[in-house]
# Entry
Amino acid sequence: MAQVSAPRKLGLGPGFWPVTIAMTVLNLIVTYGIIVFPIDSVLPEAAAPAGDIDALFKFMSVFGNAIFVYVTGYLVYFSIVWRRRSTDPPEAIGIQIHDNNKLEFWWTVVPCILVLMIAIFSVRIWWSLQNQIGDVLTMEAVGHQFKFEFRYPRLKASVYDDMHVPVDTPVTLQVTSSDVIHSFWVPEVRIKADMVPGLVQTLRFTPSKVGTYRIICTEFCGVNHGNMFATLHIDSQQDFGRWLAATSKSQGQSAGAVQLASGQAAAGQQLFGQKCSSCHSIGPFEQKIVGPGLGKLLSDPNHPNLVTGEKPNPVDISHILINGYQGPDNSAGKNAPAIGVMPNRQANALSNQDIANLVAYLTSLSQSK
Amino acid sequence: MAVAASHAGHLEQHDHIHPEPTTFIGKYIFSLDAKVIGIQYMITGLLFFIISGLLAEVVRIQLLRPEGGFVSNDTYNGVYSLHASGMIWMTIIPLMTGGFGNFVMPLMIGARDVAFPWLNLASFWIFPPAGVILFSSFLVGAPDAGWTEYPPVSVQGPPGTSLWCVAIFLIGISSTMTGLNFMVTIIKMRAPGMTFTRMPLFVWAQLATAMLNMVATVALSAALAALFIERTFGVPFYDPGRGGSPVLWQHMFWFYSHPAVYIMILPAFGFISEIFPTFARKPIFGYKMIAFSSIAIALLGFMVWAHHMFTSGMAPWLQLPFMILTMVISVPTGIKIFSWLATLWGGKIEFHAAMLFALGFIVVFTFGGITGIFLSAVPVDLHLHGTYFIPAHIHYVLFGGSIFGLFAAVYYWWPKITGRMMNDTLGAWHFWLTFVSFNATFLPMHWLGIMGMPRRVAQYRPEFQFWNDVCSIASFVLAASTLIFLYNMFTSLTRGKKAPPNPWNARTLEWQISSPPPYYNFKTIPAVLKNPYDFGEPLPYLGLGPSDKEDPHPTKPGGTPPEPAHA
# Structure
């Protein structure tokens, strides 16, 4: 059926082989560039699996580049060489060929081989990820809206915002979440795992480069998702030991009851501006930013009751400041607007005195007209 | 024999034809005619395209500065969620299937309508209300968790999230019905002699798409119903504290939404397979391989959904089959691209706007396909998942693929749909501006993602500002280039040149009748004798009359007998 109406001498068309050779040379140059490109100096490889993953990335870049250059190159070249020229009669048609079994066989087999090569290399790297050693330091990370919490076996309480790990020590990190799905990502380590409530996932890596790196939430988790960060400190062994000892000591001191009577409203006002006002206004309850307005917390009879179902009172407020607050208040009746999640005292870094001051300030707001 | 078959087909069709409506409402509002319904889909889809596109510009304005500040975080989250939902469900899917599927597919197979015109009418009339419901969620607090709406954060989300569930549920019903309708139409209503291997490749693409639409959409509907019930009545489908699982949503969502990316791209493959032979004046190269690769992609598309979930928490060994099957999809896709390239070889290529967009499609879609292979490898995905690399990839395949395909299709079929020509020079301007600004908008996002910018953020680190500004400024040019397109359409409608029946000298059936086609499409159902793309030979159809000149109304007997094909 295929009628080849082209003159035989045409072959593959003018300039086919020179163009192919030019593209191949370009590919070889780019391939060389990809191989020698120092990823480490652009985005540091700060822990064990990063180098492997970068190697796979480069491997795929080589193939991806080759395919893209050939496809685009031939597209442009064919478009130029086989364009309709103004001298062509209007009824001129192209070379009427329908298929070529040999060509189609090869352009099926070659991509299959490429895919196989990429798959084999990917599975190898995947296997090495499964077999990362860990367990010398085992710790946990918990995602909250919008904080990272870190738990160490040798610390009584959690730490927030700053994760410390010693260099050259295999780390097993178990991640989960207390509310919605977050994701734990350190670009310099190249790995991430979603922090899924009700599910514990394990990441293993061995830090190799002292420094501070970003921990980023990469799964949308609510209104402040874009500001959910923490810092990964890869410390020298000695620094890590010192940090652990210092943190352990300060946690021992902070225990003790909040003395509400000692609260200073003026100090509380200043603190409110620093720690609370991004989520709370001092207007009426309905004046919501993220959480409700707190200006009439004690005096507004229409204010929905707090978690306990009681009318708000200073002790209750201090409990919320200490423990944080999870989710919408279902006890408050159907008309209550949805309320976001309030971080607890560790997340807000509130001391006992801070809490007393804030309660004093909020109480004074409700008393003033 | 073919003539006899043609007569039989002609008579058989009589029973299924509705009389031509005479009232305005019957003609243009509640029409049963697939062509009118197709145009209705296109107008509605264009409207939602403009709204969703403007939302994208809000996103880019917000990201001009690291601290954002153009809109509040809440509004920003709603804006990008509705941008994506609007583009995917209210623009691309309806335009690909409901729009061009309805207008072009029945004409291409020589049918007078789709198999179930009333079902088609219902499919369409679900679509505008669904879109209105979706965008009206801004009034009560738009959904904020992106188009994927992963619970539990979507369970906490604003009231508009429930409206989002309803809107997507409705559009899902519409898609399923269209899928069923098209499948029956393509299998049962082809003109006599049009065997499966004589179908134009766009019809093959619609067949594969219809399959996906019918089978996959129900999974999404179930997931949406569960999310709605959890939000409204507190039944804990996705609440791990009460025995549910948030990962359940992800499995059900992606069991639909991965096939959905093929719903959005297979018809575009079909556009390209029609446009390339026409403007290269050559038969499509490797017809069978292109047709079968559509089906292969559709089938494989059901087996790869969990590649969106490598970081979500699933058994590690399960990652392997999903990774490898995903890589395997690149083989049939590659075959298509190589076949299109071979179609160009030895052609007499004319660069009308439709062809420019089709060529541009190959370049950007190939790039998007290659970054897709990167993402399919678990170790690389562990780095790139959830970063700006993902929006970069998705825009290369959905904008560079589907939207470029749709632009090409509009330029290509516009004369057939409206009976008027579009301005080719403006079309070329539109293409080059779009092509350059598209790449300037989305190429830097790959880099941002690799360097550590997560997606769906209203603020970002100052070190990313430069490339974000490049993206934003380029996106403004992209929007401006779309204005050229709108202007071109508008002036064509008001004072465009009248289009001849076959301005491109194409070979498929829809070009053999008048522009726009008469109410019943074909006075006589033609008989198909050969493949559709042999430019050197006489038209492969028997029984085609000059139906544009005569009354095509089949209830009035006494038309001309079937004529021999035009030479």
About this structure: Chain B touches chain A through 87 residues (CB under 8 Å). Strands of chain B lie at 527-528, 541-542.
